[in-house]
Amino acid sequence: MNHFPVFLALEGRRVLVAGGGDAAIAKLRLLLKTTARLTVVAEDPAPEIQSWAAEGRLALIPRAQEPGDALCCVIAYAAHEDAAKDAVSLRLSAADGALVNVVDDLANSQFITPAIVDRDPVTIAIGTEGAAPVLARKIKAELEERLPARLGLLARVGKGFRKMAEALPMGAARRRFWAAYYDHAGPRAADQGEEAVGEALASLLAEHLQADERPGHVDLVGAGPGDPELLTLKARKALHEADVVIHDRLVPPAILELARREATIIEAGKTGFGPSMAQADIDALIVEHGLNGAHVVRLKGGDPAVFGRLDEEIEALDRAGLSWAVIPGITAASASVAAIGQSLTKRGRNGAVRFLTGHDVKGFADQDWRALARPGEVAAIYMGKRAARWMQGRLMMHGAAPETPVTVVENASRPEQRIVAATLATLPDALNGVDGPALLLHGLAPRAAQAALADREIAL
Ligand code: SAH
């Protein structure tokens, strides 16, 4: 991020616009919505600017910019649409101590003006660091459509209640109140006008003040295989509402960024053989935050019900008397077969599929090798890298053909995704250099290159 977004307090501060044509007018339209004291310096100001000056909405200096014109200005715009004049303006305004924006000149600008969705006092600023103005406009148009015009009304009325809402305990209880207002009570009353919104807010507050202090709640959420777009809508909603997010190491930063900004994010890491936090400590951590009244999201890679120690956590929550819900996610097996264009089950090939773990708490995990060694069997092997050579031995001992296909999918669904097509015979070698989380698909080869390519294009 080269440009850090801030909302600048402009009340009573000076802002200078140098230039009198279309570019200046466009900036002034925006600036006139603010409480800043505007000055325009222009040799040949357009009639629109002159009439704003006549109405007293800005001060007009009808000449070329001179040293001192931008004194005490927080920001200044060079808006001549003329590179030479803008260069002079940039030099003069900067010398006067203002931050300068040269219109349509990212390289020479010290700040840039974002695309703005205005639902005063709710203001949404969209920036692409100059990379894609068209995209910014598209996002703006979408937001304009999605955000009802009455949002401003809700925010204004809400602002008047902030002090009163302090009667609610800070944190989760207060947040629940505001969420209920903005999600339900406010929009319902908004059609009947400002007064109705105020009344709805007052009775909602009374209701919340009476309600018993609600204990916390824990959502056990599947984060999917890593691509944020593979999160469920429920998972996103839970992340938006969470007070505390306790996640495992499989969850990438791009997904954690979707959590509410004020949420406390805690990594409770577990890796196959590396240093990890004991499950009992993780259980205790979740319970502790739940008992504190927090909305906890226990965020796990893939699906929490697949090799996710889900039952232990649920038992701990039950023992503590906390409410909980499971929000399923897309498991690594689903993402991995998607990556190679295959099905987990297929008519005439396999009517069953196994989800295996390469190792469990006791070490390499024993399985029904004889059954798995039969032709046509398919298994998704989780945590199988270390155990690969051992599993290879077991399977061959029970009669599996060395040429049985085994596909390694590393980092399924992530930008670093890698697919290694191997056979049972070549599997241990195929795993050389596979460092990320990887799933072994026993009995499946990637669909032929041509078809896989087509699938990919569709997927993209
Ligand atoms: N609950 C998770 C599995 C946890 S066990 C799920 O449903 O996916 C951890 C193992 O999952 C890893 O060792 C790896 O085998 C597999 N895994 C998780 N995410 C993966 C990904 N993006 N790509 C490939 N394998 C993955």
UniProtKB/TrEMBL annotation:
The active site is at D248 (proton acceptor), K270 (proton donor). Keywords: Cobalamin biosynthesis, Lyase, Methyltransferase, Multifunctional enzyme, NAD, Oxidoreductase, Porphyrin biosynthesis, S-adenosyl-L-methionine, Transferase. Pathway: Porphyrin-containing compound metabolism; siroheme biosynthesis; sirohydrochlorin from precorrin-2: step 1/1; Porphyrin-containing compound metabolism; siroheme biosynthesis; precorrin-2 from uroporphyrinogen III: step 1/1. The keyword Electron transport does not apply. It holds the Pfam family NAD_binding_7. It catalyses: precorrin-2 + NAD(+) = sirohydrochlorin + NADH + 2 H(+). One of its GO terms (biological process) is cobalamin biosynthetic process. PROSITE patterns: SUMT_1, SUMT_2. This is Uroporphyrin-III C-methyltransferase / precorrin-2 dehydrogenase / sirohydrochlorin ferrochelatase. It comes from Jannaschia seohaensis.
